[in-house]
Amino acid sequence: MTGDSALILAAVAVGVATYIQGITGVGFGMVAMPLLVLIDPGAVPGPVIIAGIFASVPFLIAGWRQVAWRELAILLPGVVIGSLVAAIVISLVASNTLRAFVGLLLVVVGGAAVFSKSRAPGPVAFTSAGFATGFIGTVAGVHSAPLAILYRYDTLAKVRPTAAALFVAAYILSLAGLAAIAPSQLGSPTIVLAMIPGVLVGLFAASGRFARPAGGIMRPIILMLCILAGLRLIASAMGGGILAAMAI
């Protein structure tokens, strides 16, 4: 899909993704990325990562006092390493192969999380989630999937600003890695500019009269998004098919 219609649909996609992040705390990449792959593959990963920064900063500012800074301190080193590793891998491995691998990983991990019991994650879980956030985010623009699994039992008041803080850092690291090693993956500024109005509409909806925090159903929503994002990545890597025609 090309032309003005693609740009309009890209704006709609990131608008919906921003709204979902507002009511669940995560989900921007899991919603925006699969849709953008179908609308315009050139929007992934660079442009969607840039749009993610604009979508996350307001949530970070609004919930600054609720950010779990100690947890962020554990997550961030993993994000740095994951972003660097991903940038190197992107330059060596075909993009379709990477997307299929990441998609399968999201389906397996997301599916396993559905049946897992509630327990407080330890340092290993946070470090692993940080690495996965950096790696998967740089490869496919889906930074939110690992955090969705890590924070699936926490409250929205904590998850939204904490995830937003990590997203901003991860997005910047991913962009830096892409710029240094795979600049062609940064995409066109035209696509980014077209997405900004969608982000603004999504922010308005998530903070205004249409805001409906997910509350008790946040866990199944974010796990479902994680699995669907994985399925879409696999479908896009395989060149379409029935799954590629599904809408989130």
Query: Which class best fits the helix and strand makeup?
Result: mainly alpha
Spatial shape: globular
- Spans of at least 5 consecutive residues whose pLDDT stays below 50 are 240-248
Largest sheet descriptor: none
Overall average residue pLDDT: 84
Radius of gyration: 16 Å
- Number of individual domains: 1
> Topology as H/E string?
HHHHHHHHHH
- Number of DSSP helical runs: 10
State the end-to-end CA separation. Answer: 18 Å
Helix content: over 70%
Strand content: under 5%
Number of strands: 0
Family: Belongs to the 4-toluene sulfonate uptake permease (TSUP) (TC 2.A.102) family.
Pfam family, one: TauE
GO cellular component, one term: plasma membrane
Membrane topology: Multi-pass membrane protein
Give a topology summary.
Elements: H1 4-24, H2 28-39, H3 46-62, H4 69-90, H5 95-114, H6 123-140, H7 144-150, H8 156-181, H9 189-207, H10 218-237
Helix pairs in contact: 1-2, 1-3, 1-9, 2-3, 2-10, 3-8, 3-9, 4-6, 4-8, 5-10, 6-7, 6-8, 7-10
